[in-house]
Amino acid sequence: MKHLSLVALCACAALGASAQTSLIKEAKDAYSKGKPYAEVITMITPAFTNPETVQLVDTYYVPGEMAFKEYDELYKQTMIQPSKYTAADSARMGRYLIDGYNYFMKAFPLDSIPNEKGKIKPKYSKNMVNTLASNTSAYRNAGIFLYNVNDYAGAYDAWMIFGALPEIPEVHKKLAANDKVIPGSMPSDEIIGEIYYNAGLAAWQMNEFDKAYDAFMKAMAKGYNKKQIYDYAMAVAQQGGHEDLVFDLAQKALPIYGKEDPMYVRLILNHYIVNKDSEKAMEVVNQAILDEPENSQYRVFRGIIFESNGDMAAAKQNYQDAVAADSRNAQALYYLGHMLYNEASALQDKAPSNPSEYATYFNGTVKPVLEEAIKYLENSVDEEPADTRLEALRTLLNAYYALNDNTNYEYTQKRIDNM
Fold first, then answer.
1. Residue 13 has what pLDDT?
2. Are 397 and 370 in contact, with CB atoms under 8 Å apart?
3. Residue stretches of the chain with pLDDT short of 50
């Protein structure tokens, strides 16, 4: 009885395996008879997790081949009657390409498993390589189609696949061979770099900051070296909480775009200041001033370092030098005005308590410094960029209050309220 039970169990297992294997054949037959792609994929889905079929190459090759056939058919139709098809149809083509790639990537390793004699006899690899190579450029367009319908995840996938395909050795060989017949079949590093950059933008749209950063880095590795890629890569690195990467990128960007944008020096200095390395921060800003003595912003940065170290006289001198070099530098105007306001406040703290003496002291000693501070602060509010505007207005509010200037106090409060 026990023997019969064991035989029965083995038979059931064999039937189960056979059923799962036949499921793939049934799905393939159903597709060939016109059953919709989505329904066929639903039919075959159990095979992706069943232990008897999860390691069979057909489990993934068959749906991959279907996906590429769906793409080919829809592509032909859009070429014949373009007016009938919408952006959504184009995006659907992109999704077929992504599906096909993903299935083939699972099929490749299973198509190279040694048989019982230890020999590797790939069944589908050549066809998969040819299919991927012939559709490489289509992934570039697929990303555009998907991005245009706000399918940023799809756009990111399509563009990353476009960049990855030439890195697959056998696909690379095929593309290189095709390129001899049809120049342009092998994407250049310049084109791949641009597409990786686009993939980074798509990932950023989804707030996938690490993915965006990775795509931007891949673009740089391919030679994409425009200023915005450094700026965007630093932005997503910062949003992803990777301040160390921001610092590394600022260091890379500085020798290339430092003269165009002082932001890189500021980010490097911020790193050193946060890490309490004032000596290194001063070294960097001094070198920047030597390289660009006419750049007033570097004087502001040096003033901030001096101020953080408690050397107020040196800080004030650098702010004054920055204003002298550029009278419209909003940060220089703000920091100088703010320092003067602090000086006025310190002087007011020393005022005599006697009312009659206080008035004389205030008008002769405190008021002139407050008025000078107000001049610089008001000028800073009028200039762009506006990153110090709110703080300048708040300091002005306090200065007008100290002067008992109700008209300007109320006007400044309104400006703050309207921001």
1. 38
2. no
3. 1-17
